[in-house]
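Q: Here's a chain of 270 amino acids. Please give me its 3D structure as tokens.
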Amino acid sequence: MAKSKTSGGYQRGVYGALLKLMHFIAAVQFSYGLYYDFVYVHFPPELKRAGGEFGGKLKFLTIWDAILQAVYFTVCLLNDFIGTNEVAPKRMPLIRKVKDYMLAAFAFPVALNVGVTFWTLMAIDRELVFPKALDAVFPGWLNHVMHTNIVIFMVLEICTSFRQYPSRKAGLTGLGIFMASYLAWLHVVRHFGGIWVYPVLDVLNLPQRIVFFAVSLIFCVGLYLLGEFFNNLIWTKELKQLRTAAGSGATSQPTPVDDKSTEHLKMNIV
């Protein structure tokens, strides 16, 4: 649970240093995981499916998410140094706005979707998502970076770094565009490569696949709402402080004076 702090306390002292360290470790970890996967992980011919060359490793949502996490935590690190982690800064830097929106719309729901879906399917039948033969070429530590640490670091991030969620319409629109783009990409790979990216789709008929995709989208929306709920729960006091600051700013604005009323006042004085 996050500790209550003043508006500027999130970027000073030991707390601020630990926050920078966590963002640095996450950014380096996901970036190195992607580098290792693309450079050193090569599947032998007997493990490749015909048509699987199309799209390369970018076929997989896991890779999309790992890229997303690497970019997100890099943005977090930049925000630590050139932006602000204050609850209610006088002027919100653009990088902070990008950081807050990225977590809400993309980083949190996609990370939990990948992690929960992967380990659930692994528990049901791993051959449908990550065949045992891949253990020889895909190291266990990389598997956990891609499918476990994404969840761990997202939970750490939402608990330790304050953010203001965007409007629900704006957040869900961004998430919907992201997931719709990936679902469209799955069908592009199917059309030009002749395979479904995930073997589980091979065992489903058309109606079942439609249900599968619909449930996946609904699941993502649920994860978005879950992230919003936890953010509001964890940062209740800070969000109240933010609303208070916004309210004070509104009430401190000078009341506009009507020109006609001013002229009438002058006439009465004369």
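Q: Can you summarize the key feature?
A: Residues 135 and 143 are 9 Å apart (CA to CA).
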